[in-house]
Amino acid sequence: MSELKSVIVSSPGEVPIGLRKRPKSPAPDVGRQEAAVVGWRQFMTDYMKIGTPGRAEPEKNVRFKTHDILRSPQKNVIAETTAARAHIVAQRAREQVANTRLGARAKDYQRLADTLRGDPLARDALLRLLLSGKLTKPSGAKGEMDLLEQLVALNKQVLEPGVSRAELIRSLLIEINDPTNLRQQDRLTCATVVASVVLIRKNPVEYVRLVAGLASLSGSVKTVSGTVLRRNSDWANKNDGGRTPSVRLLQPALMDVGNFFLNYDNRFDRHTLGKPHVSDVKPSPWRRWTATRNPMVGLTQPGMAKILAETTGQQYRSTYVLSSLNRDSIWRNIETALASGDSVPCLLAWKGSGHFVLLDRIENGHCYFSNPSGTQDRMSVEEFRQILRGASWPRA
Fold this sequence. Notes:
Layout: H1 2-6, H2 30-47, E1 68-71, H3 77-90, H4 92-101, H5 106-115, H6 120-132, H7 147-156, H8 165-177, H9 190-202, H10 204-215, E2 220-222, E3 228-230, H11 245-258, E4 263-265, E5 270-272, H12 285-292, H13 301-312, E6 316-320, H14 324-339, E7 344-350, E8 353-363, E9 366-371, E10 375-380, H15 381-387, E11 388-394
Antiparallel strand pairs: 1-10, 2-3, 4-5, 6-11, 7-8, 7-11, 8-9, 9-10
Helix pairs in contact: 3-6, 6-8, 7-10, 9-10, 9-13, 10-11, 11-13
């Protein structure tokens, strides 16, 4: 074939194509690099129908047929606050009884309650955790603290300058009481938010311990699997749409674990091959391009399985839906995991992008799932299966 091509000419007298000199390629520039990135993303969109796993923001003219948002706490703050105040008043007698049962630890509970004075949402979250028994429920590991002990330790801990103790405890309580309040905001961290929701449901004490370690002066903490999580030096960057202190501390650290050999740059929300230079005041054009235009964003299915294993101590199997040949097999594994009481992290083709959600249950022909955008959603089983692109479930 190559020999035939070498003698092909467009017109008589023209130099054969195989003998022509190739023009020199122009020096790489940002424009060409951006074009390459656009081409790569288009390829992923066309070939895999997945796109970039990350942000869950709607695009124009893109609508699901059966998607409903059932609950969005952050969009109804006034109603949630009013309900919290009413619940605190209505449960005052029960709180006194439960507080008395704490014995000598009643003072610790009261100190936490005093810290949250003037904050109905956090105060109500603490009350609900007390009444439900979660506040004093053993973590399961011998010698480990329960949730109340872990929160009390955090309340006394020396924190990194810039970490607000009141705001950190507030965010932890609200998120543990209702993980729907965990939100990725303007970051492509849907995978780490989903993993955090799984961790809170399985072991809220561990969630507090990890965040407390990252908030400490050392800025590091070991997971149950022994991997060291490190606080991102730019963790407090406020260009993320308003994430809570706990989310700002934990999500970048988990991104660094889930991206394997890459490094996560929190300021630009991208992975890099080298160490992220978050201290650069005016990064070079090349540095800015690699940090803002490279396609290495979000996490993959193996990355999701890795952070789930690191945080929960349980091994997960993770796979992509490559065709209709393995879709049914994956769906059967999802149903088996749900039947055993586990929620299943799923990767969906979501409005022009890839997006991780946490499938909680299947009921009456609908899939009910937690969305890292901060909502509880519902979709028909048929449509959910159509946009399913991957899943992670606990190994037996």
